[in-house]
Amino acid sequence: MAQQKTILVADDESHILHVVSLKLRNAGYRVLTANDGQEALELAQQERPHLLITDYHMPQLSGLEVCRRLKQDPSLPHIPVIMLTARGYHLEPQDTEQSGILKMLSKPFSPRQLLATVNDVLEGKSRAEAPDVAGTINPTVKREAV
Amino acid sequence: MTNEAANIPVHPVEPTVLPPAVLENLAARFRPGGLFLVVLRPDGQVAYHDPGAGPFFERYVLPLLQARDAAGVMPRDRVEALMSTTAASPTTAPAVWQLPGVSVAAFPHAEKRQAGGVIALAAKGNTFGLVEDVQRACGQLGLDAQWLFNQADELPAYGDEAIRRQGRLLASTLRDQVRLTGLENELNSLTGQLADTYEELSLIYQVSSGMKINRRASDFFRQACLDVLEVMNVRGMGVTLNVEISNRPEPALYGQMKLPQQKVARLAEELTAMLWEVKGPLLVNELAEDRTFGWLGRHARRLLAVPLQRQEQILGCLFALDKEDGEFDSVDTKLLNSIANESAIYLENAMLFEDVHGLMMGLLHSLTSAVDAKDAYTCGHSERVALVSRHVGQQMGLTDRDVEQVYMAGLLHDVGKIGVPEAVLQKTGKLTVEEFEQMKRHPQIGARILQDIKQMREIIPGVLHHHERYDGRGYPYGLAGEKIPLMGRIICLADCFDAMTSNRTYRKALPLEVALTEIRRCSGTQFDPRLTEVFLMTRPEGFYELLRDHQQKSKKLRELQESLRTKFD
User: How many domains are there within chain A?
Assistant: First the structure.
């Protein structure tokens, strides 16, 4: 790895922060953590991480709001986002597209899968272009009712 | 760290929690005060010293600590004496050693409750003014005394009480550091466990969300095995079932480990037999030495198997072979057990579903046979219409569920004939207007028969509208075009196709080509042109053979019926 990549992890539940940080640090990433949306926003502006992993439900600012504001900030480079949500929760496709959200993972997520996704986003190029949002793609094949 | 540990007379510092980083940190903290951190092993040798303390410490204090002192005491004895002192807690009273011109505060530390050595802080002593002593020591060490005085000039001097105070400070700081490191380790270990739990939870979620009743059992179990392989880090993950279920997977092993199929089958068989007795998880950590599974020792070392169990019944088992990192433990057992429980629920549901579904289909077939039997010349007709309807439904790209509905509607399309007098059904000549009216009522009678069965409601349109014509000249409602439900249009086509290709009282079966030409001719008038196009394009020859076969069997059945009838009449 040429240069150590920095990942900002934001969640108000500290156990999630611990689990995610441990997994990512062990894999050689530099990890910063934030306990709420406001802190996440400030840290992101200051540290310019290569990737943001954020919870959706957070005090101060929601994860989605953080993404929007980062996206609107012209002084920042594009920061890809992996969003963690409660199971069964879906974001509208336009929200995810407008906010740079590449991937959504439902809690309880598999840390291994999260790491694989992070590696994919940061090391591979294929994924970064195509948003892959689970559950939002419905094949629109017209079928007649029987 | 517990309170109990804090009460142990020797300082409870474990070497595992005294990593270099902690020592560096401590050394750096005391360095500005002219204090020198040293760790001595039980034999008196230096295990660690502050690397940034400067020449006075490195060239004078360090050798001094490792040399016989003025009273002739060896460093080893000094350390041993200190370590055997259990009188005072090191935090309240570290020992003070006076070496020529140097004050040392020292306390013992334990390594896992065994004496591990001494941690010491050394500084210029207030005895540094006793020039002769220092000069003598310099002579012994081969140092230039004047150089040493210059080096020590700026350093603060510590008397007994001052160095003891610093020692006490070191001890409490160290204890905090150790506690902190311990907590950090504990946090990391808990976080690691938590991450494992997340992994398990997400696995269990994944497996249970795959528990769709209409999923093929073999698909379900293959996926479950692959999911477990991901999480458990084992070299082989297998499954075997010993229940009657369609699409039952053969005993299988997934993962890196490759075993010949007959060995997988043997393992599956022996495991199943074993689990009937154990009725719980089976763990073998040395296969080569095992009485039952010794033969497997050539391929694998460790085995963990859990039964798929409902009540007292063993439905099958899941088995894992060779964990990548060591022995199987209770965590693995728990995880595999959860997966087995989930899978057993799936399996039981799938079996119940098949049971009920089989019973229902059996009843439907007997019902339609009863209907067909009323009319000697339509024997087996309902089943053939169901087969053709299913074929057309599939060709139309309907969902599996809809295809199934179309099949059932085909099966039951003539059920209303129960309400039509046999005299009308079996009449060989032309029907009178009145008789034809009676005949035309059968779709509505059929719909009425089915309407009270909740599960059958969706197929009613197929039954009710199978005599509608695309041009609107059919019955009972004279619906036209797309107004006729698709199911009705499909069954209409299938019904006519089978009627033409079967023997009737008034004519022999038409050859396939003639029937197809007729269907083409009636496309757009009697039949939905879209359907006829799909139907004709799919080369009906293939299943036509199947239908002929079916007709032959039906014919034999009919002959049997006839002979029975003549016997009893």
Answer: 1
Report the DSSP beta bridge partners of residue A52. A8, A81
Tell me which chain B residue has its CA closest to the CA of residue A17.
Answer: B191
* CB B183, CB B211: distance < 8 Å: no
Q: What is the pLDDT along chain A (146 residues), one digit of tens a residue?
A: 457 899 999 999 999 999 999 999 999 999 999 999 999 999 999 999 999 999 998 888 899 899 989 988 888 888 999 999 887 777 777 777 777 788 888 888 888 889 989 998 888 744 444 344 443 333 333 344 44
| Tokens describing residue B515 | 């029937």
Which chain A residues have any C-beta within 8 angstroms of a chain B C-beta?
15, 18-19, 22-23, 87, 108-113, 143-146
Inter-chain CB proximity A22 and B487 less than 8 Å: no
Q: In Å, how far is A110's CA from the nearest CA of chain B?
A: 5
Instruction: Collect all residues of chain B within an 8 Å Cβ-Cβ radius of residue A85.
Output: none
Predicted interface score ipTM higher than 0.85: no
Q: Exposed, middle or buried, B569 (CB in 10 Å: 0-12/13-18/19+)?
A: exposed
Contact A143 B399 (CB under 8 A): yes
Contact B486/A109, CB-based, under 8 Å? no
* Nearest residue in chain B measured CA to CA from A14: B191
CA proximity to B422, closest of B475, B363, B370: B370
Domain CATH for A13: 3.40.50.2300
Q: Which domain holds residue A50?
A: 6-129
Provide the domain limits for residue B348.
210-352
Q: Does residue B303 fall inside a structural domain?
A: yes
* Number of domain units in chain B: 3
